[in-house]
Design goal:
Layout: E1 4-10, H1 14-30, E2 35-41, E3 63-67, H2 84-95, H3 112-115, H4 117-125, E4 131-134, H5 149-158, E5 164-167, E6 182-183, H6 190-199, E7 202-206, H7 209-216, E8 229-234, H8 239-242, E9 248-251, E10 288-289, E11 292-293, H9 294-297, H10 301-313
Parallel strand pairs: 1-2, 1-3, 4-5, 4-7, 5-6, 7-8, 8-9
Antiparallel strand pairs: 10-11
Helix pairs in contact: 1-2, 1-7, 5-10
């Protein structure tokens, strides 16, 4: 049987592309030897070393060019699906396939050279320090995902000397400066960020690309099977659509009237006046407390400290020093 040749296209945000990597993986696993695939996306770095891609020419009449979407998101508040199902169900409808997710994560690969990068650093500079990656803000089009910078600082201060935090974030986005971190904001390419995730002990983030990479990228030998990740989620997105089973997904869905039947899916906390359609009244948070969505204001620094601390008190991870932390936060 002749293999169908597909070029899959999507130019959305990097988190969406991580979901497409899973769909490509599962298309091949569920229908082996039936497809040859290539991609055109906004994030080529996420496809490096991917074993399921072969170069194809969009101008070849034998090649099917498919613009990929995930309409399943419109059922996300009430249907029992995860974001991973989005592109998969779209491709099933388009191709007549029977793809099912094979793993609860995206499919981003790290080369052996990239894995060995820290070993080279250690040879020259001495033993490296285990670290957690941290995102303190996000894109301006979804300000409703942001948490309070002062609360992030309280978390960092509590773990000072116990956990090294490395702050990352794309230049041009909102990422408040936090004291006591290694500051790499605006200094990493997407590929370098993926490499950092591989070497990271854990991740602290709002709903973002980083949480998807935390699940998608394999762990280093000697670490837990799944990367610890604490996600400050609030009430915007339904947990079953967004969360990964091994993450601490701190949400408030069901606790407020505005998200009592799934996520609110709003975009911004307050209007920015930048002309973006996300400033429209129907895109704005309906319950704001001191410039935070109430669903995010309800999440304290003490709660995030507790969720991080669980990985150490439970024995999955070890602190920088083999000593106990002080009593938990009030």
């Amino acid at each position: 049987m002749q293999k169908r040749r597909l070029v899959l296209r999507n130019f959305q945000s990097p988190g969406d592309i991580v979901m497409l990597t899973a769909a490509v993986r599962d298309l091949h696993l569920c229908h082996p030897d039936e497809f040859i695939t290539d991609v055109r996306t906004s994030c080529p770095d996420l496809w490096q070393h991917n074993p399921y891609l072969q170069p194809l020419d969009e101008g070849d009449p034998a090649v099917e060019v498919i613009d990929c979407h995930y309409p399943l998101i419109h059922q996300s508040n009430h249907a029992p699906y995860h974001f991973l199902h989005g592109f998969i169900e779209f491709l099933n409808d388009r191709l007549g396939t029977h793809v099912r997710p094979s793993a609860f994560k995206g499919d981003v690969y790290i080369s052996e050279e990239e894995k060995a990068w820290f070993s080279t650093v250690e040879e020259r500079m001495g033993q490296s320090t285990p670290f957690w990656l941290l995102v303190s803000g996000g894109k301006y089009d979804f300000t409703i995902k942001w948490w309070d910078a002062q609360r992030y600082q309280e978390v960092i201060d509590y773990f000072r000397g116990k956990i090294e935090f490395v702050q990352v974030g794309e230049a041009g986005h909102f990422h408040p400066d936090l004291k006591g971190t290694v500051d790499l904001r605006g200094e990493t390419s997407l590929r370098q960020l993926a490499r950092l995730v591989y070497h990271a002990q854990g991740v602290l983030t709002p709903i973002s690309l980083l949480m998807h990479l935390a699940a998608a990228i394999e762990m280093k030998p000697g670490m837990p099977q799944n990367r610890p990740c604490v996600v400050i989620a609030g009430g915007r997105e339904p947990p079953h659509w967004t969360a990964y089973p091994h993450h601490q997904f701190v949400h408030t869905v069901g606790a407020l009237r505005c998200c009592d039947n799934g996520g609110c899916w709003k975009s911004r906390t307050l209007p920015l006046g930048d002309g973006d359609p996300k400033d429209a009244p129907d895109q704005l948070c309906v319950d704001v407390v001191d410039q935070l969505p109430r669903c995010m204001d309800m999440i304290s620094s003490a709660e995030i400290i507790r969720r991080i601390e669980m990985h150490f008190t439970g024995g999955a991870l070890s602190y920088l020093e083999n000593t106990a932390l002080p009593n938990g936060p009030d």
